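[audit] Reproducing an earlier prediction to check determinism. Same input, same settings, fresh worker. If the tokens differ from the archived copy the diff job will pick it up downstream; this log only records the rerun itself.
[audit] input (754 residues):
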Amino acid sequence: MKKILIILLFFAAGAVLSAGAVKIDLKNSVIVQKTSSLKVISEDLKTHLELIGGGQVPIVPASKIPPGKYVFHVGKAPKGTKKTFKKEEGRYIVTDKAAYFFGDTEYDFGINHAVYTFLDEALCVRWPGVDLIAAVKRNPVIVSQTEGRFIPELNIRGIRKQGIWNRRMKMGFHNPPQYGHAFTNWWKLYGKTHPEYFALNQGSRAPTYAGRRSGDMAQVLASQKYDRIIALCVSNEKVWARIIENWKKAGMPEYVNICENDAPDILSCHCSNCMKLDVLTPEQQKDWTHALADRYVYFANNVLARAKKYRKDVKVSMYAYNASQDAPRREKLSEDIVIGIVPTSFTLASLEKYVSSWKKMGLKHFFYRPNRHYYYAMMCLPAGFEKHFYNVMKLMVKEGCIGLDYDSNKNFNPSVQLSDYIIAKAMQNPSASFEECFKHYLEAYGNAGSNVGRYFEYWRKEVWEKRIEKNLDKITTLGAFYNYSRGLVKNITPYYKESDFVKAGKYLDAAMKTPGLTDIQKALVKRLADFNEHGRLFYVAMTVKNEKNSIALLKYRQKNNLPILEYSEQYYGDIAGLKRVMDLAEFTPPFIKTPLFWKFKLDPEDAGQKEKWYKEGRNYLKWKYVMATNNNWERPYAHYKVISNEIRALTRNYNGFAWYATDIKIPADWFGKRDIYLYFGAVDDSCTIYVNGEKVHYRPYVNLNDWTTPFSVDITKFVKGDGRTPQYITVRVGDKGGAGGIWKEVFLVSKEKK
């Protein structure tokens, strides 16, 4: 590491040619690609060389190399060089006339690795985040390390959705098992002719959402076609036969992929033959969570046995995921089954125990496929978890995994990018220490790297290690369905403080003042400082919920071209209030939330209007029940204890009329100075609004999406008295189908009079 830092300092001070080094004039250079398949690699090499040298480095045909040019040969080895390579092996050789990038040509991985090993080792380029290139500008360049080689140990190395960054970080694969949800098109192919292939649920072998649970599982089902996630009847020998027939038609490749579709546990097959394969505790019999591995291992063993009749070295790949996550209790794995383990817990102790439980049942070959790890990457806050997930990766390597395939997202969070970077470096070289990987990343910041390192160390040591890591299970349980981020935002104050952003930010202030930084290094430090300030604003908007803080966050995102609503903010609710202030942008702050729970009265005979329930004033308090205004009446949230079991039973599947009522007080300084409105987030289906016994507005259900559409009602001329006078609000809701009710909150808002 010291050598690279010294090279950076030399580059900053001026070109120094040491013994054996090669000087290259990038402004007098060209690139030659051997085949058209190398276009992407060649063009990215061009991007880097032009960024460093400040001039054009054209890609030219081998037959048209101008005389006197230095040549970068992509896909060509020097004469006399051996042409046999290990899987994914990449090499580069730099001479005083040309540079050569060559290696294993399968998928062009070897040549890819040769180019990026050169850029990393010889030109000291760093890629600290997706679409970010950190390189010192200079010309000519002095290359001291004139030869390099990369041969990966792990068969699978991947972090998904990262684009060309994956190429740059030498992600790839060799001899991988075939995996991925294997039966997503089966219903389309066989649903009409062979319904017996598919899971039996509620008396039907067809795509269904029956038995779904709330929360993120409902989101999964809503986001996919049900037929693509349908489970199979894995005890059915006809299913095994069809799999073997399809495998034979495909040429009998080395692997038979039987990774089940992305179905929730409870949608696995309920037929008696499948169920008698299960070994369940009384608790697991209620919802089957992660407990059906015995039936799926039985399935895998039988498919493998049939495939062995045709190819002796065949293997079967399956997932330990959803219903099959936890190790079987009875069925032993055949030696030629390869499993992609997809655990939902990420504490080191639980993972070590988890892998051990599978090994006891015969696991020999596995790869690590953590997609719930993705939930740790969705927050807009500094995280500090990079060493934790490095340790997780090292544990999996120690346990003998053949590779790692991480789910991820293209996140603008530098903490997430740091963690991904360190994991990627460790996948390149599993023996590399955390400190080596971390220092490699920090070199992108030049001489500011020491203070940038202290910034990240603050979040790692003071926040993650001291506050969060020991509470991972607690936080994840609060989030439900193993969702760490959602659990964190539900109760963030024990783990983060506003002062953390101030303390950590001082290291970035010092980093920005570091003398001799290049423009790129300054930009990278500023990016971190901007992110830190964004994190502070986000934290404040989450913990002190008012429109002032939400608007400040919104303006900051708009100014800095950040995503206005990060995915987690939509998925977990309006946690920072941004959607609220955007929806209410036409109104003048403050925005006053009406009570969450309103008095509630069913009207199955539609007698309310005739009996003038809207005239009851304070008498509405005598109504027996209450109902939430942020959730439908058919399935109010279970944790709302104020909603009685009696009314829950009455409203389950209820279609018809019901009434809501509450009272509010209007700020005294609004009277005469503002027009006053009620803003309804959404009502399913139609509704009539009354204020102080007077009809204000009728909103019919006309358009298909009216039940999801917010609307506002001017109540200025219907309010009475002053700021001390209660205003009685009554709403009659009619529901002909669906869940019914006021299901997104109601606000009291206003506009300055013109």
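[audit] rerun output stored. Observation attached for the diff report: The mean pLDDT is 92.
[audit] end
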